[in-house]
Amino acid sequence: MLVDENLDHGLRSPHVLGGSPVTIHLIVDDVDAWVTRAAAAGATVTTPVADMFWGDRYGIVEDPFGHVWSIATPQRAMSYDELTAAAAGATM
Question: Cβ(8)–Cβ(53) under 8 Å?
């Protein structure tokens, strides 16, 4: 559960804590639409949506409270060998 920061109740945002080790990952039907909607609602796009070597269309946003959300739409299933070959050629 995510809630708004409320210091009176000990609820601190990632911004107050200096960041968070947590990334919330969503698998959605249309990553482009979700990231556009998140940005319109005040999120910052930290990784623009792109096709990734592991077969997902993927992007990352940070919401106004500092929570990081990775959002993906799977494009194709990959075998272990295909994934290994794609990772070897990837530049990130």
Answer: no
Facing residues of 61 across strands? 45, 69
**Average pLDDT per consecutive 10 residues, the chain (92 residues; last block may be shorter):** 87 90 96 98 98 96 95 95 90 68
Single pTM value for the model: 0.86
Query: What letters, b where the CB count within 10 A reaches 16 and e where it falls short, cover 23-46?
Result: eeeeeeeebeebbeebeeeebeee
Question: What CATH code would you report for 21-88?
Answer: 3.30.720.110
Domain locations in the chain as residue ranges: 21-88
